[in-house]
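Appendix B. One record, verbatim.
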Amino acid sequence: MPNDRSAPADTSRTPTAPDAVAPAAPVVPGAPAPDAVTPAPVHPPGVAAVPEGVAPAVPDALAPAAPRGYRAVFAVAEFRAVFAAHLFSLLGVVVSELALTVLVYDLTGSPLLSALTFALGLLPYLIGGTLFAGVADRYPARRVLVVCDLLCAACVAVMLVPATPVAGLLALRCLVAAIAPVFTGTRMAALTDILGEGDLYVLGRSLLRIVSQSAMLIGFGAGGVLLTVLSPRGAITVTAVTFLASAALLRFGTRARPARSGDGGGTLLKESLAGARLILGDRRVRALMLLFWVPPMFVVAPEALAAPYADAIGVPSAALGLLLCSMAVGHIGAELFVGSALSPRNRSRIVLPVAAVGLLPLVVYAVRPGLPLAVAALALAGAGAAYVIGLDQWFVDAVPEELRGRAMTLLTAGLMTVQGLGMALAGLAAEFFPVHQVVAGSGILGTVCTLLLVAEVRATAPGRMSDTEGRDRADRHVTSG
């Protein structure tokens, strides 16, 4: 299925740090408070509870050490199936976006319609993520994931019919994009069943994000190569195959589990909207969700304006690729480092500081930097996104299990929507101000907004909210089931 870029997607309940059994208050404001009554089991750093599919450690001094970090995630058989399905469908989607854009341009000769094909990959996210979010909790996760893949494969198959008009191609593109947040949110929630709610989940989400960023670098290149040997419709065929492969991997590689919350008797639309109200009505969850959304909204400005900026500083067109990929490279490198080198406790420590300063590298654009300095600034801005590794844990801690699928779906939908909005606003601002000033302004304004959110996240940390707020939140969690 389409990726959760940044990130975010197309999203941690029990404390996982080795010292989580201590009754002392957490070091980082905003981090989940450890349970001071019942000591949590202690696990090696980088490994949470032993999930399904992994044999427990043998009490033998000669037994090999249990895998840690990312290796521990890949030790879970079901996650390997989810990871492979994500890789297949993601590469297919990236290839199809490029091929469909070329196909629409070939059929119409219109740059506007060709560009609209890309935009339609973002706009329906909010609709699908809001109106159909209830699917993620109402039905078994495996069934939802497989059906979503099959529906997307069917849409792509219709695109391949030569008689399909351009309007039909764009409508099918919208339908695939509307399904995407439901698929991504369901998969994010299902990871807590597969990997548990602790550190393995956090690292699993990290791996999927890394794949999403990498696919953007590899997929467009692969799509360009395919289009040299295949027609646009031939390249789109690859997408149909990848959706079917993803469906097969998920159907036969993961276990069937019951739905999180059965049919409550209301319509799907009513259940989806009620879930959204409960999620956004929780002050803590709302603050965390906004911390996922706001920095990406501003950090997309230099990507959206990469072409005009390259032209403004007089660099060759080949340099445009460097401007576009620098942020992804920085993000991948930082996420790998944070996920493998830092303990769960230290990943929690860096969430708020890194989020607070993550957009500041964009302020370098105020001096209209040349290519080397601009590339370095973009790589640093991409590295700032590593704060989401710890934020994933906080978010799952804050969301009640019966709302988890809807919360993850809404999170994904909002993330893609605000990135599209950020690109549009950056383009609009560039109509009135120089490009470098728009990018620098995005860094400054985004930092101010993020600092306000950091203060809100601190204020809503467990143990900091008032007793009344805590009781209200508990009541909402009880009634949400």
